[in-house]
């Protein structure tokens, strides 16, 4: 039965990174109390929470005490042990998203199987389980180039490599073979896009406007949500994600990344949490992805997701902070700076983002802040 969580009740957030911080900010604005759980004393979200708990993600006792004191619990990190979340929800019945979205997305092969079973297209894929001879046949099955990815634990291009020739194959593959690997046909896509869906406990479903995404070194560089986006693409992505979330009765937020090539759409991956490509929604949409995720787990009606104007988000990595500081005095009234309060500005690690609610200044900004891309 759907429970409605009201202001002044307590929302627990497992994971204290920037996503947890922005979730907590949205919850605070809605009048909730927030508690955040993370292993690091320096977790950015702690500064936004009413209380925090330091504990490991696989520490059942610590997590159990945390979940027990919350009225409702959500997560911002997809690698929390899904079995553990299942046990906690059986005990306390206050994690509306449950363990399923975590379990489904924690293993790439399992994720792709679920995507296919929901009728959505993925690139041709082969599973490589062991160091038997099966890998020798990959070029015949997939053609060159193809991509090898660890089944579990990869992010921002880590745990994956592009194989361009037969000579290339053993090195690239064996470097990843600590766990099982999937090999995937390389999609020579026109562009990458993503869509974020939110589904309430009563089945209400909304998506946010499509973002087109550009990566540099496999790390998201910018996301553009345009007022001129193709209605056909938006409609197709909306329907795909709706079908998938309804089929598996997913509650809460789920992001879907796709490759678009001509009329073809291939699903690359899913994320059961707010997504970097949805940060633009904070200023770009009436309701942000963070507020929407909070509404869904609290049993509130979902908000309006209309795009107010074309909006562009740029990620800031550690090396961009120095040029950003020089540029700050020139930022126009349409540039919104978010810095996450990370302890260190590490090279190639996300430490903030800037959102422009118009594109007048973006070229100048981009040139000033991102020309020091490489170390
Ligand atoms: P992933 O970790 O799967 O999101 O992949 C990171 C990035 O690698 C994607 O955003 C793409 O730019 C690229 N990539 C991953 N898989 C493929 C593929 N099958 N074909 C082409 N590019 C890919």
UniProtKB/TrEMBL annotation:
InterPro entries: ATP-grasp, ATP-grasp_carboxylate-amine, ATP_grasp_subdomain_1, D-isomer_DH_CS1, PreATP-grasp_dom_sf, PurK, PurK_C, PurT/PurK_preATP-grasp. Residues 112-298 form the ATP-grasp domain. One of its GO terms (biological process) is 'de novo' IMP biosynthetic process. PROSITE patterns: ATP_GRASP, D_2_HYDROXYACID_DH_1. Transmembrane segments: none annotated. Pathway: Purine metabolism; IMP biosynthesis via de novo pathway; 5-amino-1-(5-phospho-D-ribosyl)imidazole-4-carboxylate from 5-amino-1-(5-phospho-D-ribosyl)imidazole (N5-CAIR route): step 1/2. ATP binds at residues 108, 149, 154-160, 184-187, 192, 215, 268-269. It catalyses: 5-amino-1-(5-phospho-beta-D-ribosyl)imidazole + hydrogencarbonate + ATP = 5-carboxyamino-1-(5-phospho-D-ribosyl)imidazole + ADP + phosphate + 2 H(+). It is an enzyme of class 6 (ligase). Signal peptide: none annotated. GO terms for cellular component: cytosol. Homodimer. Catalyzes the ATP-dependent conversion of 5-aminoimidazole ribonucleotide (AIR) and HCO(3)- to N5-carboxyaminoimidazole ribonucleotide (N5-CAIR). Catalyzes the ATP-dependent conversion of 5-aminoimidazole ribonucleotide (AIR) and HCO(3)(-) to N5-carboxyaminoimidazole ribonucleotide (N5-CAIR). This is N5-carboxyaminoimidazole ribonucleotide synthase. The gene is purK.
């Amino acid at each position: 039965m759907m429970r409605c969580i009201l202001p002044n009740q307590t929302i627990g957030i497992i994971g204290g990174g920037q996503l947890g911080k922005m979730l907590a900010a949205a919850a605070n604005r809605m009048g909730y109390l927030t508690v955040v759980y993370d292993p690091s004393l320096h977790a950015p979200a702690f500064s936004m929470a009413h209380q925090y708990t330091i504990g490991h993600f696989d520490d059942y006792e610590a997590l159990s005490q945390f979940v027990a004191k919350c009225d409702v619990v959500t997560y911002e990190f997809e690698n929390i042990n899904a079995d553990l979340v299942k046990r906690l929800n059986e005990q306390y019945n206050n994690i509306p998203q449950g363990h399923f979205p975590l379990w489904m997305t924690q293993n790439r092969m399992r994720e792709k199987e679920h995507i296919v079973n929901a009728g959505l297209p993925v690139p041709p894929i082969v599973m490589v389980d062991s160091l038997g001879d099966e890998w020798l046949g990959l070029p015949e099955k997939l053609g060159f180039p193809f991509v090898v990815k660890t089944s579990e634990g990869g992010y921002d291009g880590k745990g994956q490599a592009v194989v361009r020739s037969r000579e290339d194959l053993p090195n690239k593959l064996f470097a990843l073979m600590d766990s099982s690997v999937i090999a995937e046909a390389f999609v020579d896509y026109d562009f990458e896009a993503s869509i974020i869906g939110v589904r309430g406990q009563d089945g209400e479903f909304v998506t946010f406007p499509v973002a087109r995404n550009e990566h540099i070194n496999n790390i998201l560089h910018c996301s553009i949500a345009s007022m001129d986006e193709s209605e056909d693409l938006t409609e197709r992505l909306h329907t795909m994600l709706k079908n998938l979330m309804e089929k598996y009765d997913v509650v809460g937020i789920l992001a879907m990344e796709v490759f678009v090539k001509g009329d073809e759409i291939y699903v690359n991956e899913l994320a059961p949490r707010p997504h970097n490509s949805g940060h633009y929604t904070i200023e770009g949409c009436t309701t942000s992805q963070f507020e929407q995720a909070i509404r869904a787990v609290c049993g509130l009606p979902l908000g309006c997701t209309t795009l107010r104007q074309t909006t562009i988000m740029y990620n800031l990595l550690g090396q961009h902070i120095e040029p950003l500081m020089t540029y700050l005095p020139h930022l126009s009234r349409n540039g919104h700076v978010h810095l996450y309060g990370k302890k260190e500005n590490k090279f190639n690690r996300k430490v903030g983002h800037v959102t422009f609610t118009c594109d007048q200044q973006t070229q100048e900004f981009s040139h000033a802040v991102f020309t020091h891309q490489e170390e």
